[in-house]
Amino acid sequence: MALVANSFAKCAPAISSNIIQCGSVTVCQAVPLQIADLDTVYMTGNEFRVMRGLLEQDMEIKMCGAVQNGLYDFLMANKVNMNKRVQSTRLNSGLIDIAPFIMGRQYSPINNEYWQVGNGRASGGNWIVEVSSPTGIPMDSRSFIIGQRVYILGQTAGGSKTTTAWTISTFTDNLDGTADLLLIPQNSQSALTPDQTATPVAGLLVRGTINVSDFEEFCQEAPAYLNWKNVPFWVETTRSSLCRSSNYDKWRAMLLEDNPLYREFGDLDDIERNKQLGADYQKRIVNNIFYSKPLQYQDLSDYTNLPLIEAYDGSAYGLGVDGSTCQARRANVVGIYEQLAECNGNNWPSAMPSPTCKAVC
Asked: Regarding predicted confidence, which is higher, 118 or 321?
């Protein structure tokens, strides 16, 4: 790496080139690694630097002038180094089995703002509705206290839109994830038309505050929720390279010298080639992140049946393995669409969110 006066003129990383780096902007050398080189390549002190190759390739692609892929840049900007969370199990044969997933803490959104309303019905001069959480929030009487105002954005039995205000009179837990609220109407002074303040049979309910002065006795201890869980994030590795060989240079030079038609229409210079291949590789990574699906047996109970990656002697390469031979299992990264389907597709009870949900639902 060498910095010159205009290294950051275009706000892009600068990588100098020399003759041993193929004479172009690439930093890849087709030289087999020796055992002594592995520590330098894969580790910094006792830390694995598994993302260095990815970062270097990103810089190369940008130096080639590839069009910026905003979605890829966003995803890469949010990547997290998880190498310390890799789990391993020592088997009876002396092998160390490396798990193909990393357990990570996931925080799910707490959507206790909107509540579903159904089964609206009269009770004397008041109104009863059945409320439930669309996201599995457990029912709690502290969420609906006596005297609290609620607002229902709903529809009447005839299907017309209605916007109404109410005060909670009683709360009855139905013990099935729903509760009945006896509501006192607060719509008599509304500027809306009578049709717009008609009683709703279904809709969405949002909660307001209770009208209480500073001199009245009142205390509400609203419920709070634990919204995190540990879930498996499956690990997939892949690679790409942007390099050329001396033989390629030799034969290309011969063609360019004697074949003007090839020189004009058949040849693609290395920088343009690397630019296209690098941009294409980034697009394929993004496609994986969105659409990839898990392999058969890719779950916590059956992952030991996943295809076996050939074992290697970690101690011989100085990779920090405790004098043992390692094996791993092949897994696919699970795409965002698949995570959303997993979150919404399981038939879990309405009061209990799926423990395997890994997406923002």
From this structure: 118
pLDDT at 235: 85
The set of residues, in sequence order, having a beta carbon less than 8 Å from that of 75 and lying 6+ positions away, is: 285, 286, 289
Decide: helix, strand or coil at residue 212.
Answer: coil
Average pLDDT over residues 246-263: 66
Q: Are 160 and 202 in contact (CB under 8 A)?
A: no
| Range in 8-12, 164-168, 185-189, 253-257 the model is least confident about | 8-12
Query: Quick check: 200 and 122 in contact, CB under 8 A?
Result: no
> Given the DSSP bridges, would you call strands 148-155 and 161-173 parallel, antiparallel or unpaired?
antiparallel
d(CA 359, CA 350): 18
Burial of 286 (0-12, 13-18, 19+ CB in 10 A): middle
324 burial via Cβ count (<10 Å: 0-12, 13-18, 19+): middle
Length of the chain, in residues? 361
Alpha helices in 150-245 (DSSP H): none
Q: pLDDT-derived band of residue 301, with 50, 70 and 90 as boundaries?
A: confident
Of 16-25, 238-247, 346-355, give the range with the top mean pLDDT: 238-247
Q: 């897994």: which residue's tokens?
A: 331
Band (105; pLDDT cuts 50, 70, 90): confident
**Residue 250: half-sphere exposure toward Cβ, Cα within 13 Å:** 3
Give the separation between CA 198 and CA 289, rounded to whole angstroms.
Answer: 48
**Domain residue limits, the chain:** 26-105+233-245+283-329, 115-210
For residue 252, give Cα distances in angstroms to 19, 257, 267, 271, 342: 17, 9, 8, 14, 51
Distance CA 26, CA 188 (A): 75
Structure tokens of 247? Answer: 């033989």
φ/ψ (deg, to 5) at 16: -75, 155
Q: Position 220: which residue type?
A: Q
Q: Would you say domain 115-210 falls under CATH 2.60.40?
A: no
Token readout for 274 is 């690397």
Q: Is the pTM of this model over 0.90?
A: no
In three-state secondary structure terms, 306 is: coil
According to DSSP, the residues that pair with 233 across neighbouring strands are 102
